[in-house]
Amino acid sequence: LHGYFGKYLHVDMSTGTLKDYPILDSWYKRHIGGRGIAARIMLDLLPPGADPLGPDNVLVFASGPLQGHKIAGGGRHVVVAKSPKTNAPNEAYVGGFFVHEVTTSGYDGLIIVGQAEKPMYLTLLDGKPELHDANEIWGKETSDTEDALIEKHGKCHISSIGPAGENGVIFACIISDRNRAAGRPGFGAVMGSKNLKAIAVRGHTEREVFDKELLQKARVEYAGGLARSKDMQAFGKYGTPGGVPYLNQMGILPTKNFQKGTFDKYENITGELLYDDYMIKRDTCTACPVSCKRVVETEYKGQKVDPKYGGPEYETIGAFGSICLIDDLAAISLANQKCNAYGLDTISTGVVIAAAIEATEKGLLESNLIWGDADIMLDMVDQIATRTGLGDELAKGIKHMADRFGEEVAVHIKGQEVPMHDPRGKVGFGLSYAITPRGGTHMEGMHDSMLERDEITPEYGVSEPISRFSWDKKPEMAVLYENMRSFTNSCVLCMFTTQMVGPGYNFSTIRKLVHATTGMEISPEELLEIGARNFDLLKILAAREGYTRSDDGLHPRLMEPLPEGSSANRPIEADTLNEMIDKVYDIRGWDHFGPTDDKLQSTDLEDLVGVIQR
Ligand code: SF4
Q1: With a 6 A CB cut-off, is 99 part of the ligand 1 pocket?
Q2: Which DSSP category does 150 fall into?
Q3: DSSP 85-136
Q4: Is there an atom of ligand 1 within 6 Å of 75 CB?
Q5: How many Å lie between the centroid of ligand 1 and the Cα of residue 187?
Q6: Structure confidence by residue, pLDDT tens digits, 539-569
Q7: pLDDT recorded at residue 455
Q8: pTM for this entry
């Protein structure tokens, strides 16, 4: 099989052993890469019931077949480990430049197990792996860590944790290239628990591909399509923050801890304003012509917001803005900088602060937190990262807050803080929220608003617009889009580049790219089969940890009618949601626990029959 080195670097932090971990060709044929290969590794190496912050947890940095070849959208990797938030294997996708170096270093990815006795860091420079004492960089913020390692080892790309990961903040993340976060499931805490401060990588050896000429053609076709697309040009200009007015207009801009879907001061936090008044340039990921990343320079009450920390995405603007009723982009940019420096997930941090504000307002918590106060919000970010004052409570995450202050104020799904997408105006998206083993994630399902556009994905026969409020065909659509996304997540291709090029998804070129690199010719049907198979792996991993159908659903707040705006007065009825979830289980061939043995046998997963204890 072309396109892969066929091995991961296996690092045992307990013993300091570095060895090759071979990946079977049959795994690549069945699972492609990314989430699929990482899940196979987890099934192989992670004992069910392992402590997420103990030595038995397995931390995987995975690539797909499209990394290392300067393909637009391919500057992306996925980190997989058992999450301390959801207590099951979970995923964090991250863009930038780090993975290009890994996949030109002789390895398709990295596996970290064990727990070192003292802080260490890993280098993989010019193909040579080595562990080093990290005493001098332990305690440093992420950017300072990068500076120190680049000074010592020369040009390289780095993934590191900051003080938040060292301090075991449950939603700490891993930061690459100073401003790209492997956020959400708390993998900064996992990396910290292993006493691994950083990974520095530099490579020069491209993976051998099946057809160089075809790759060049497909690469130009893909990047050219992105560069020519008017939609992508607009997206690149305003980035994800460009969505703020649109979501407010749809009545689903999460506001005041999900109590509302419209923010009366949304005009102060738009992508356009960020572009006009705060941005100094756009940034990109490896070989991507879209350049949707923000780079801002500003000041908030004498504190400098440094361009090296990038700028806030839509999710960050929602999490520190509308959800906390804050309308100051300089303060939000500073919160973003603090999170990148400390290694904190911005969504989780904003949502736990909003929950604490509401708990205070309701008399469930004694604190100085109030809606709309940026100074107090910023102070709380410091307290969370350093685990001082109330920050020590918040650092334990949203589930802890639910136990401590009541489920009502702590908006989460399976222990994962809900991101900045409200299902009350996108019901199919809510269905994916309710079902995915990853908990509250915006990186899994479809956005119903896309289904309202004409000619959505003709390759899969989706050509009729469907209302974002309608449940009609939503189980079928949710599964279809989850499987498409699961495939692109297995290629680890940036989701923004997979859509918006002409009508719907851009799968014919993506299939061409996979053919050119690996030699595998994948039909549209096989693409969905691979996506579904890899989604099933995630479900099996969750089932091993005790998750069942009974754990699926939405937080009660996300089912109440919104009080105002274009999505007002449309509650999500529990009976309807349950009926839809059951339909998805039927379509997927799942019983109460996950894929049935028949399903496993018919989808080339017969070796996993018996893994789920029913
Ligand atoms: S679209 Fe944006 S996030 Fe995606 S690869 Fe390009 S620059 Fe990176």
Answers
A1: no
A2: H
A3: TTSSEEEEEEESSHHHHHTTTT-SEEEEES--SS-EEEEEETTEEEEEE-TT
A4: yes
A5: 22
A6: 999 999 999 999 999 999 999 999 999 999 9
A7: 53
A8: 0.97
